[in-house]
Design goal:
Layout lengths: L4 H6 L14 E2 L10 H14 L9 H20 L8 E4 L2 H16 L5 E5 L8 H10 L2 E5 L12 H4 L4 E7 L11 H10 L3 E5 L11 H4 L3 E5 L10 E5 L1 H6 L10 E4 L4 E3 L13 H17 L1 H20 L4 E4 L8 E6 L4 H10 L2 E2 L1 E3 L4 H7 L4 E5 L6 H18 L1
Parallel strand pairs: 1-13, 3-4, 3-5, 5-6, 6-7
Antiparallel strand pairs: 2-8, 7-8, 9-10, 11-12, 12-15, 14-15
Helix pairs in contact: 2-10, 3-10, 4-5, 11-14, 12-14
The structure holds pyridoxal-5'-phosphate.
């Protein structure tokens, strides 16, 4: 393992704190990640010294804030290798990014009888906006199923992509099963049939290098708070041509060139999609989070997390009665499991009292729960600041749960 994790942990003050009876073991990183001190400091600094609204003032503070906001857009463009900075739209998070596309793309491209394709492993936020669109436009939602390993049945893809299919919305990484989908292959197949592709990168972009040009995806979306940045800021990447053709999602200040009661002329990209006061200090926090992650190196992060996840799976497999859900060949550092005859909430509560933070329940993926016929799972989701010692504590905790409820 090639990361100096002890040194990295120094950058995350929250990890040092004691809860009930000892140090926090934070294994709920798929829900939200902790923030390095550089991100916390820059947010404080901007509120303390430079707070002013962007794009609207000629004064020093407004200029300074605007420059920092636009610099963040460039950092993100470079991070995901987009062609243009104006293809990066700031939103409040993955959910808003998907809703934006479902509305605006839907207005432009979807008509009665068209089909939208999603997968059985999507987070609710990559299902419901498409259902709402289908209802609005009398279109049809279709689904790519998963197998018991938690991988997509890609054999079904050619049949599911029909001349009626307009868009495929697919997650990069399953937030419940950890499956990393073979995006390049899937996107190429979709494009061959003229189908646009939106990738939900909420669990992808913080764990592996994303190159939107190489992937050739039409949209890639993610949340700042899951990549060590602040809450309330997220990203929609979209290809310039599509974003230009799509109507605005929200109306208001900043998204216009001119307004009269007779006619409004909308602004150019990216502001056309950024109505109202955006979370500009959040964008600066995200900029610094991405710089932090880039300094460590995404490939170093990926390698370390893979080893830690593999250690976790091996240790969990040694405990009789533990069943892991999601055994894909290509898997991220998300491990969902259940302990025989123990409800996931009960397990989570015992682990909590041992200072271990895991997530329990459906993880906003009810269709996955229905597929496996379960009410929920315990989910440990790992980040580069987690250690094997923390995994050992988790294993100890699982053994204790088993003893208590067995
Ligand atoms: N998509 C996936 C795969 C997720 O894991 C999540 C959150 O857990 C979301 C979408 C929604 O993200 P947010 O709540 O930040 O909008």
């Amino acid at each position: 393992m090639n990361l100096d994790v002890d040194k990295i942990r120094e950058d995350f003050p929250i990890l040092k704190q004691n809860l009930y009876s000892g140090q926090l073991v934070y294994l709920d990183n798929a829900a939200t990640t902790q923030k390095p001190i550089s991100v916390i400091n820059i947010i404080n600094e901007y509120y303390l010294k430079y707070n002013a609204n962007i794009h609207r003032g000629v004064h020093y503070l407004s200029e300074k804030m605007t420059q920092a906001y636009e610099a963040s857009r460039k950092t993100i463009k470079n991070f995901i290798n987009a062609e243009h900075a104006h293809e990066i739209i700031f939103t409040s998070g993955t959910t808003e990014s998907i809703n934006l596309v479902a509305f605006s793309f839907g207005e432009q491209y979807i008509k009665e009888g068209d089909e939208i394709l999603v997968t059985q492993m999507e987070h609710h936020s990559n299902i419901v906006p498409w259902q709402m669109l289908c209802e609005r436009k009398k279109a049809k939602l279709k689904v790519i199923n998963i197998n018991t390993f938690g991988e997509l049945f890609l054999g079904e893809l050619d049949n599911l992509l029909t001349e009626k299919t307009k868009l495929l919305a697919i997650t990069h990484v399953s937030n419940t099963l950890g499956t990393i989908n073979p995006l390049k292959e899937i996107i190429a197949k979709a494009h061959k049939k003229g189908v646009y592709v939106l990738v939900d990168g909420a669990q992808g972009v913080q764990h592996q290098q994303v190159d939107v040009v190489d992937l050739d995806c039409d949209f890639y979306v993610f949340s700042g708070h899951k990549i060590y940045g602040p809450t309330g800021i997220g990203v929609l990447y979209g290809k310039e041509k599509l974003l230009n053709e799509m109507p605005p999602y929200k109306g208001g200040g900043d998204m216009i060139k001119s307004v009269t009661f007779e006619k409004t002329i909308y602004n150019d990209l990216p502001l056309k999609f950024e109505a109202g006061t955006s979370n500009f200090i959040g964008a600066i926090g995200l900029d610094h989070a991405i710089r932090y992650v880039s300094n460590i190196g995404i490939s170093n992060i990926a390698e370390y997390e893979k080893e830690l996840a593999s250690y976790t799976s091996i240790e969990l497999a040694k405990i009789e009665g533990v069943k892991v859900f999601g055994n894909a060949m290509n898997k991220s550092s998300i491990i969902s499991f259940n302990i025989q005859d123990v409800h996931s909430f009960d397990a989570g509560m015992v682990l909590d009292k041992m200072n271990i933070a895991v997530r329990t329940g459906t993880h906003c993926t009810q269709p996955i729960m229905d597929f496996f016929g379960i009410s929920g799972t315990v989910r440990a989701s790992l980040a580069f600041y987690n250690t094997t010692q923390e995994i050992d504590k988790l294993i100890e905790g699982v053994q204790k749960v088993k003893k208590l409820f067995g």
